[in-house]
Amino acid sequence: MAAKTQRNADYIKQETITGTVPVLTNERQYSFWDLFLTTGGFSIATWCYTQGAYVAQYLSFRQMLVNIFCFNIIWVFIECLPVLFGVRYGIDLWVWLRSVLGKKGVAILATVISLANFGWYAVDSQLFASSMINLAGFFGLSLNISLWKPLLGVLCVIIGTIIALGGPDVIKWTNRFLVVALLGVGVIIVIICFTAVPLGDMFKVKPDTSLYNTAAGRFMLSAEGNVAFAFSWSTQALVMPRLAKSEKQGYWATSLAYGVVAPFFVAAGGVMAIATFVKAGYYESDPATMLAMLAGPGFSLLSLLLVAFANIGTQGTGSYVNCMIVKSGLPKISYKVLVIISMFYVSVLTVWGWVMDNFGSFISLAAYIQGPIIGMVAVDYFIVKKRKISLKSLYNIYGHNAYGFTHGFNLVGLACIIISFTTCIMFIYNPLSGEIKSPVFIAVTGSGYTAICGGLLYWIASITPLRKYMLRDRNELDIV
């Protein structure tokens, strides 16, 4: 009997960590610094440098810095507001979304978005492989790219899977080291850039005008990339905060990591790209190559090693949070099974290479699904449900089915996503063709439009007779 009781206790503890049941206050593992370093480590990967190098080509030096920091900070600080309910109730975003999308709606969208999110980790593993091949080159070892790039990419996925299987504790300690080291490298990189070439020369660099025929258009197309980059964290960022010890710690740790640390590395990539252009006459996106040009192979080797390890850390944390997203919709599937399945899926994407080749379109299309969810959750939490939820219905306690809606689907929430997604591609901006279709894009970007549209539609629905349909839980509230 005692052994059975202990097994049950261990099971409950494990499922607390892997999202099946709420995390109680006395079970919270993460302080501000634990969560900040974990999310910061998650956000730092080579794709930050790649994103910065892309933006740097089309904007002046000042415009680049404004574009990167302003759009990331504004949207991240907004999209992280639901962290407050995540910590308050000990749940993640996707559990709350059962009340916005319905239980079956969450199961489908959680799976779809996670399949899309895992595309980031295919990019991450490919960049890891490139870094390792470049590292071998510094030692005079020439590797066959067509053979070693997929092998090393899959190796990154496997090591990240091992970290993910260790759970939040392993992730926490891995990122404690990585983030501190990588922040130091980021500062060194910026110093090198400003000393390798005159600052005045970087200010004089003229942006490439081929992206669009007006300065405003080029600025907002670059902003679209940064807003989509900010949105890419949204459905993943709100998993870890439920382990935080207080709402304040959870919000600020998450917001600062994704809204300041990640953009800092994007900006570092942009500064490196411009400095490399000044020195060599062309743009480059690989951090090792840029640093080799600016400061010699010694500094390049240091940064390359740490960037490579950052990609492994990101792979591990990303596997954990995205498997939590899927588990929110499909709670009966074992966490470990999901992690193993994701390992094979990301490995296939890594070898295939499609996501890397179509990166810009990929992040915008993903953001067009995430954007309406961001808008709806903020409106739902603060305006419609007024920060009150039924935990009994969220977890399908017998006799409580307020979030069953229409055969498991909240038709209002799903309609808001479909309308926002469709109207953006048809009338605002199509990321596949790169065509700006409306001045609305110049005002808020395509991704920004989807968030505003989704939230606005959800609010309008809540002041119509549909309000009764949306608030079927009011008679069984768990007021915290």
Describe the structure using short key phrases.
single chain; 480 residues; mainly alpha; two-stranded antiparallel ribbon; 24 helices; 2 strands; 75% helix; globular
Shape: globular
Number of helices: 24
Q: Main sheet?
A: 2 strands, antiparallel
Average pLDDT value?
A: 86
What's the helix-strand series? HHHHHHHHHHHHHHHHHHHHHEEHHH
Strand order of the largest sheet: 1-2
Q: What portion of residues belong to β-strands?
A: under 5%
Secondary structure: number of strands: 2
Describe the overall structure.
The protein has 480 residues and is an all-alpha fold. Helices cover 75% and strands 1% of the residues. It is built from 24 helices and two strands. It has helices spanning 2-17, 32-43, 46-58, 61-79, 83-89, 93-96, 98-101, 103-138, 145-165, 167-196, 199-204, 215-231, 234-237, 247-280, 287-295, 297-329, 335-352, 354-357, 359-384, 391-394, 411-428, 439-444, 446-462, 467-470, and strands spanning 429-430, 435-436. Strands 1-2 form a two-stranded antiparallel ribbon. Helix 3 (46-58) runs antiparallel to helix 12, helix 15 (287-295) packs antiparallel against helix 16 (297-329) and helix 19 (359-384) packs across helix 21. The longest helix is centred in the N-terminal third of the chain and has 36 residues, at 103-138. The chain is globular. 54% of the residues are buried. The model is unreliable at 4-19 (pLDDT under 50).
Summarize the structure.
The protein is mainly alpha-helical and 480 residues long.
Fold blueprint:
Elements: H1 2-17, H2 32-43, H3 46-58, H4 61-79, H5 83-89, H6 93-96, H7 98-101, H8 103-138, H9 145-165, H10 167-196, H11 199-204, H12 215-231, H13 234-237, H14 247-280, H15 287-295, H16 297-329, H17 335-352, H18 354-357, H19 359-384, H20 391-394, H21 411-428, E1 429-430, E2 435-436, H22 439-444, H23 446-462, H24 467-470
Antiparallel strand pairs: 1-2
